[in-house]
Amino acid sequence: MSAQTDPLYPGMTLEAADRDSHDAAEPVIFGFWIFLMSDLLLFAVLFATYAAMSTHGQADAPGPRELFELGSIFIETMLLLGSTFTFGMASLAMKYDQGAGAVVFWMVVTGLLGAGFLGFEISDFYQFAVIEGAPPQASGFLSSFYALVATHGLHVASALVWMVVMFVQIAVFGLSREVKLRIMRLALFWHMLDVVWVGIFTFVFLFGVVQ
Amino acid sequence: MNKRLTPKIDAACKRDLRQYTIGYVLAMILSLAAFVIVWQGLVAGLTALAVLSVLATVQIVVHFHYFLHIGLEKSHRDDLYLILFTVLIVALMVAGTIWILYDQHSRM
Q: What's a Gene Ontology MF term here (chain B) (predicted)?
């Protein structure tokens, strides 16, 4: 795997502007992929639980059809998709050495979109749990719904914390090799969360309204 | 885009930018299609579930290709195998869970 000029690992490579960091990236990026895949397994089990509970576990509580409001789900989808694109711009700014300012700018835009997503999600949860009387303990469907969707939300929130930590590191160390490698892993994490969201908006919200 | 970049790297930068833009536009179209199908009630019942599943699967592949840069190139094989193996495990767990629980439910 060593003597080749191809990118050594998938994802946004640093080949163009920083050959040394590019070589150092291979093991840490592959290791992070292993984490991402194990994280995906966690979501898969939550999805499976939800699939069973959403049809058999509604009890007397409101079901998906009465509860879900697709308008805010659509806005959340657009916010997260936009943030995936802006993080791509941050990765490009880093790859092509356009300076820490450009990287931080695009990451701030990404972070704001991500925070907007979380804001809408929290307001959805409030709407469901408090206003419409459908808290997690009301039925098996609701327990598994909040477990799945909030686990995703928690991931987004921790990615935002990670982003803030990266801003501090950029301010202190500049775009050093270690900082670049950490931003690359954050980028993979962020893109993967959007993949999980595609599953959530399709299999939870759209399926719930159609059924 | 940047004065310090050589023409070759500049071309690579434009190519990468185009990749992200194509991915973003495709993902946007696929998401919109899924929501419009449900909003307009274009298809119903099991057909709707099938169409939505296909749209989601295509969108996930688009995300992996354009944003996570997973391809069929030799240098990407390790990661591709890792992802495909995970997909197998995920499919076994999800399909198995749903199968068993639906079966159990139909007996109650």
A: proton transmembrane transporter activity
Q: What is the pLDDT of residue B4?
A: 59
CB contact residues (below 8 A), chain B span 22-81, against chain A: 23-24, 27-28, 31, 34-35, 38-39, 44-45, 48-49, 52-53, 55-56, 59-60, 63-64, 67-71, 73-76, 78-80
Q: What confidence score (pLDDT) does residue A59 get?
A: 83
How many alpha carbons fall within 13 Å on the CB side of residue B91? 7
- Residue B16 to residues A52, A93, A101, B95, Cα–Cα distance (Å): 41, 11, 20, 37
d(CA B88, CA B92): 6
Measure B35 CA to nearest chain A CA, in Å.
7
Check: CATH 1.20.120.80 for A19-210? yes
Which residue has better confidence, A149 or B103? A149
Please report the pLDDT score of residue A2 as a whole number: 38
Higher per-residue pLDDT: A1 or B19: B19
Which ranges of chain A have pLDDT less than 70?
1-20
Contact B52 A206 (CB under 8 A): yes
Determine whether the interchain pair B68/A89 forms a contact, defined as Cβ–Cβ distance below 8 Å.
no
What ipTM was estimated for this complex? 0.87
**Whether the Cβ atoms of residue A74 and residue A68 lie closer than 8 Å to each other:** no
